[in-house]
Amino acid sequence: MTYDELTVQLQPGDNDFGIEGIQDVCCHAGESPLDLMGHLFSTIQEFTTSCKQWDDLTAAYFHFAA
To answer: pTM of the predicted model, to two decimals?
Structure first.
């Protein structure tokens, strides 16, 4: 299998979603895992509406019981 390679140069301000954006989404931790993931992906989609998505999105939900 062959893959295309792409290099992207980020400029200051290009990645404003960051850890804070993910933490804001995770404040919905009382939701079901499916709802939380749906909220995460829809929030990212809203954040990037002016950009064409050229890569896939992957997330994992882990629950640790004490």
So the answer is: 0.63
Confidence tier at 18 by pLDDT (50, 70, 90): confident
How far does CA 60 lie from the centroid of its chain?
A: 11
Measured between its terminal Cα atoms, the distance across the chain in Å is 43
φ/ψ bin of 13: left (φ > 0), alpha (ψ from -120 to 50), beta (otherwise) = left
Contacts 24+ apart (CB under 8 A), 41-48: 44/17, 47/17, 47/21
Flag whether pLDDT at 28 surpasses 70. no
